[in-house]
Structure formats: structure tokens, C-alpha cells
Amino acid sequence: MRLAVGIPAEEIADRMKFTPRMVFQTERAEQKRNISLERLERMARAIGCDLVYGLVPWERSLEDRAMELVEREVWRKRYTSRRVGKPAS
Is residue 25 within 8 Å of 36, Cβ to Cβ? Predict the structure, then answer.
């Protein structure tokens, strides 16, 4: 990312209070997917960016999954209430 925005490693190092070597190590760690979110956020701030971290469901939306869980809980409460002789609410 640093190269894309054209900021020299030395400038990033100054902003991060790192050595240029540590900047290169951080970039390599990112490429290997072996970087902490803390360090990645620090690098992002040094190049004038926000770090955005997110999860994307593979098959269905989180809303669909939440609705499924709600429906299951409603069914469980109604079924349990009927079994013990209580009126369903």
C-alpha cells in the first residue's frame, strides 16, 4: 500500500517511530498474512488511511442467519410452553 501512495519507507518509519528496516519487515509480514491488526492499523495511519476490518458470510447474509435463530427460539419457546401445559404466548 505504501508503494501505491508513493510514500518512501523512511517517511513511514518516521511517522511510525520505526526504522526503515522495520517498515520493510512489516510489509513482508502483511504479504505473508502474518501481521497483527495493531501493526496493520499503525501502518495504515502512517500512510493516511483507516484500517477497515470485516467479515463476509460465505453463503447467506447475517440477517438471514439471525432470522433463522430467532425463528428457532420462538418455536422452542412455544413447543416447551405447550409441553408443560402453559399457554403459548
Answer: no
Asked if 51 and 37 touch (Cβ cutoff 8 Å), the reply is yes
Cα 52 from Cα 7, distance rounded (Å): 20
What's the pLDDT at 85? 58
Q: Distance between CA atoms of 30 and 64, rounded to whole angstroms?
A: 33
User: What sign has the CA pseudo-torsion 30, 33, 37, 38?
Assistant: negative
pTM reported for the whole predicted model? 0.58
What is the domain partition of the chain in residue ranges? 2-46, 55-89
Considering Cα of 39, then 43, then 49, then 53, what sign does the dihedral take? negative
